[in-house]
Design goal:
The complex is a heterotrimer of chains A (298), B (346) and C (268).
Chain A lengths: L2 H8 L9 H4 L17 H27 L3 H10 L1 H34 L5 H7 L2 H4 L2 H12 L13 H26 L2 H9 L4 H30 L18 H10 L3 H35 L1
Helix pairs in contact in A: 1-9, 3-13, 4-13, 5-9, 5-11, 5-12, 8-9, 9-11, 10-11, 11-13, 12-13
Chain B lengths: L1 H29 L16 E7 L3 H12 L8 E7 L1 H9 L6 E3 L3 H9 L17 E10 L19 E2 L7 H14 L6 H15 L7 H9 L5 E5 H9 L4 E4 L3 E7 L1 E3 L6 H11 L2 H9 L3 E2 L2 H6 L9 E3 L7 H9 L5 H10 L1
Helix pairs in contact in B: 2-10, 3-4, 5-6, 6-13
Chain C lengths: L4 H31 L3 H7 L3 H34 L5 H13 L2 H12 L6 H5 L8 H27 L2 H8 L4 H30 L2 H6 L10 H10 L4 H31 L1
The chains are: A mainly alpha (298), B alpha/beta (346), C mainly alpha (268).
Chain lengths: 298, 346, 268
């Protein structure tokens, strides 16, 4: 399943549920008894903690501490500066638009790839993963060649919010498709057919039969796309225009604050961005846990 | 059996990566020859790391080959980094490995003097450490459809002006000082100058590119009616065939771009020789060819037709020198221009 | 399903039109613009000293990051799956953290930790350059690629359990022998897959790397930085297209590798 690729690049959040059965395809194998005695293990845990601290935790700790270097008031001032607020607002707005676009088009694409059949489907299916493999700066250049000043079709989206939407839609394309696709394959086609034979129209089937099954997958794909979109930098850096209060997104604002030697402002907005991404992923975890419980109950 | 083959495949991937690392490790330093063919490694007498402001790249593309093609500079290799002048200065102050810095504005050098990275007497020479310069010009769309000729035209209804962020870009400081000097009559009537800047910044400047180069790129991609820029950058854009032309207003501002040797330079002899070379007639001619105004009077006279003299060219010393201007106008939070920017863009 | 033919057709058309406008046409256009001057121009543009050095640096970073991720990824996955210790949930969350962090934020964090004015600024002042040096770029890439190997190896470890290892131990194998003969071979596909993902991400990282690079053309520019600097600093649009095409080629190669791996993994 190509879905693994997306899931891999998208983040293990969906799959890292501590439930071993979710990951295991061989449930008949007995679970390992707790703790085979081993000399190395405590060291291993210590080593892992040290490694994660050095690579991930310490930098983020330095960031968080710096953001409050001028006290909580300073932190709040940096965040509530109108241009910082505007950048965060643009970021959330555009990311939300892109998330909705993904929810609709991603589901549609998944449906077409699973339920429809046409020549070249395999190629289209492979194409979906391209945005994950493509460096973001390449995405920016690629889109600029069609939607930039040299546009052969005379559509100029650079330095507009539409340009931002296109760039972010490009890099987040696989999330919803790849999370909905496997569910759709598993979903019982016969129920759809039965509903149709009972006279239900296409829209009714979609609303009553398909959507409830796909719901959790769509939500999780959309959430991951949103989380990715709010932090995105490389794909918007050339096409976005970086216009304060119009197309400047939070990551560009952070870079600007570093360039003008205001690290505390940069750190404060970074912390806000981080918090938003966490919140999104946390909510996703809750939703997926709830739908897992519901599944188990039924 | 098959397990072993698969394992060895996985192992090969890792080993292959390690081997690659060995090759690349050598490669990344060997192929640093940006101006000297890789075959010439034997003649190398040192490497100079140059941190320059973004627009200067065009000048050094001419001048560095001039230096390395003969004399003291033969065989010297260059590592060059370009970006917004203020950001480059911040990076060097924060530890970036620079031997020579070439900034847009003097305060960016002053920051390094304060940090102990540039000798206090860096500007003691006859040219005060400034080997080249330019003047502030207005780049407009081809044919000048909005009829931009002078500073007041920028304040016309609906005119959108592109100029970089003055807190990262040196270019932006020059661009703002020009109308300030003109309107305040060389600083004698500051409130008139500030009034002009206030309406320019609050009503006509909507973008804040990081550097002069990015500002040009923004303008060329279709944003704005007027780009405030260096004359050399305007010349380069016209030469490159971009659909723009430029207007030098009757009264404008003299841009002086300082160059200095960093005290902890790894190769101070080569670095000093390079900075010295910049003031030679040969280098001055190369600067002029690249569209930058030379400081050598003989060379300047030879290229006079390329660089028309405006009616009145204000200079930073007319305004009292960089130390007072920077403190008065550009200090973050309290400088008068900083306050206008804060109000306009926050 | 008896969706009416016209509805089916219009859904298909809508989906394909979206993909075409967003993905296919831009990619084809850039390929066309790269190769319209002939293969020679493309090759010349990606063989300049700066381009070769950028490719080398990108590969060098990959070559440092991959082994580190493999070793620590396996140890981390083992600890997460087999270990019983307090704070395991926390460790799980930390492994996922890099997925949630904006690349620019990674760059800023590293500057604030390792930069001359940061917590470990003493190292910098002592002459060990992390920020504005290759170590900073490696650390940035390590940060963003950290989860891949862990998250690919972890489910496999869950799946295989420990009875084979225990059997080996009963037969007298020591810890290392068990690891090399039993555990590692079982992990091979998950591990390789994680490595491929790491390589793809490491080659493509831009935001985090640009914040910590000294930006010397031909020395400290990776391929992604080369694309950016050619486009913005040099106004060398063609050069940017050519370098982007090179990166795109590497990305497609990774994609192919992944789909082959996936197929093999399913059949073995």
């Amino acid at each position: 399943m190509t879905a693994t690729l997306s899931a891999g690049l998208a983040g293990g959040t969906q799959r890292s549920t501590p439930d071993p059965q979710a990951a295991g395809e061989a449930p008949e194998r007995p679970r390992a008894p707790a703790g085979r005695p081993s000399r190395g293990r405590p060291y291993a845990t210590g080593l892992v903690t040290l490694w994660l601290s050095l690579v991930v935790l310490l930098p983020l700790a330095a960031l968080t501490v710096t953001s409050t270097e001028h006290g909580w008031g300073g932190f709040w001032d940096a965040l509530s500066a109108p241009s910082a607020l505007a950048a965060l607002r643009v970021t959330v707005l555009v990311a939300a638009v892109v998330a909705v676009l993904n929810a609709v088009m991603g589901t549609l694409l998944a449906w077409v790839l699973v339920r429809d059949d046409f020549p070249g489907k395999a190629v289209v299916n492979a194409l979906i993963d391209l945005p994950f493999a493509l460096p973001t700066i390449v995405a920016s250049i690629v889109l600029l060649s069609l939607y930039g000043p040299d546009s052969p079709i005379h559509v100029q989206l650079n330095a507009t919010r539409y340009g931002l939407v296109v760039a972010l839609a490009f890099v987040t394309l696989p999330f919803v498709v790849r999370s909905v696709q496997p569910v759709l394959i598993e979903a019982d086609k016969e129920v759809e057919e039965a509903a149709a034979s009972l006279g239900a129209g296409g829209l009714t089937i979609f609303r009553r039969v398909i959507l409830p099954t796909l719901g959790p997958a769509i939500i999780s794909g959309t959430g991951l796309a949103f989380a990715r979109a709010i932090g995105e930098f490389g794909s918007v850096v050339l096409i976005g225009g970086n216009i304060p209060r119009h197309t400047q997104v939070a990551s560009q604002y952070i870079q600007q604050q570093i360039e003008i030697d205001q690290p505390v402002n940069a750190a404060a907005v970074s912390v806000a961005l981080l918090a938003m991404a966490f919140l999104t992923l946390f909510v996703l975890r809750l939703v997926s846990a709830r739908s897992l419980r519901r599944e188990a109950a039924s | 059996m098959s397990r072993t083959t698969h394992l060895s495949a996985a192992a090969t991937a890792v080993v292959g990566a390690l081997v690659l690392s060995a090759c690349a490790g050598g490669g990344s330093s060997d192929t640093s020859a940006t101006s000297v063919p890789a075959g010439n490694v034997a003649k190398v007498t040192g490497t100079i790391s140059l941190y320059g402001y973004s627009v200067a790249k065009a000048a050094y593309a001419q001048v560095i080959p001039g230096f390395t093609s003969g004399g003291a500079g033969q065989g010297v290799q260059f590592q060059q980094s370009y970006g917004a002048s203020g950001d480059q200065s911040r990076k060097v102050a924060a530890g970036a490995p620079a031997d020579v810095v070439s900034f847009s504005v003097e305060p960016d050098v002053t920051r390094l003097v304060k940090a102990g990275l540039v000798a206090a007497d860096w500007d003691a020479g006859p040219d005060k450490g400034v080997p080249f310069g330019s003047v502030v010009t207005m780049v407009v769309r081809k044919g000048n459809p909005k009829g931009i000729h002078d500073w007041d035209d920028l304040l016309g209804p609906g005119i959108s002006v592109v100029t970089p962020n003055p807190f990262s870009s040196g270019s932006a400081k020059w661009n703002l000082l020009a109308p300030y000097a003109v309107k305040s009559d060389g600083g004698t009537n500051p409130s008139a100058g500030l009034a002009y800047l206030t309406s320019l910044i609050t009503q006509h400047v909507h973008v804040q590119p990081g550097s002069g180069r990015e500002a040009t790129e923004t303008f060329l991609q279709g944003t704005g009616d007027v780009l405030l820029s260096y004359e050399d950058e305007a010349i380069a854009a016209v030469r490159a065939g971009d659909p723009v032309s430029y207007v030098t207003p009757p009264q404008t501002f003299k841009i002086e771009n300082p160059v200095a040797v960093v005290t902890r330079a790894k190769n101070p002899t080569a670095a000093t020789a390079f900075v010295g070379y910049l003031f030679t007639p040969a280098a001055q001619r190369l600067f002029a060819e690249a569209g930058f105004r030379p400081v050598d009077p003989t060379v300047a006279a030879a290229y006079a037709k390329d660089f028309p003299a405006p009616q009145k060219l204000w200079t930073i010393s007319d305004l009292g020198g960089w130390a007072s201007v920077d403190a008065d106008l550009f200090t973050k939070g309290t400088g008068k221009v900083a306050v206008i920017y804060d109000k306009a863009t926050k | 399903m008896r969706t009416s033919t016209s509805a089916r057709w219009s859904l298909r058309l809508l989906a394909l039109a979206y993909l075409t406008a967003l993905l296919a046409v831009p990619v084809v256009l850039i390929l066309w613009r790269t190769f319209e001057l002939g293969l020679g121009a493309f090759l010349a543009s990606v063989q300049t000293p700066a381009a070769i050095s950028a490719l080398n640096l990108s590969l060098f970073i990959v070559a440092v990051v991959v082994p580190l991720n493999v070793v620590f990824g396996i140890v981390t996955a083992l600890a997460l799956v087999r270990g019983r210790f307090r704070g395991k949930g926390l460790l799980q969350a930390v492994v996922d953290l890099p997925f949630a962090v904006s690349p620019v934020v990674v760059g800023v964090s590293l500057i604030l930790l390792w930069g001359a004015g940061g917590w470990f600024g003493a190292l910098d002042r002592a002459g060990f350059k992390v920020i504005f040096g290759v170590p900073g770029m490696v650390l940035a890439t390590l940060f963003v690629t950290l989860p891949f190997v862990v998250r690919e190896v972890e489910p496999v470890l869950h799946e295989i359990g420990t009875d084979q290892e225990q059997a080996a131990a009963t037969l007298g194998a020591n810890g290392w022998q068990t690891f090399w003969r039993i555990t590692l071979p079982a992990l091979r596909w998950g591990l390789t897959y994680g490595v491929v993902l790491t390589v793809a991400r490491a080659l493509g990282e831009f935001g985090a790397v640009i914040m910590v690079s000294s930006g010397f053309a031909g020395v400290s520019q990776t391929l992604t930085l080369l694309v950016h600097s050619r486009y913005v600093d040099d106004q060398n649009t063609y050069g940017a297209y050519a370098a982007a095409t090179l990166l795109m080629g590497l990305a497609v190669l990774t994609l192919l590798l992944m789909s082959v791996l996936n197929r093999t993994r399913r059949t073995t």
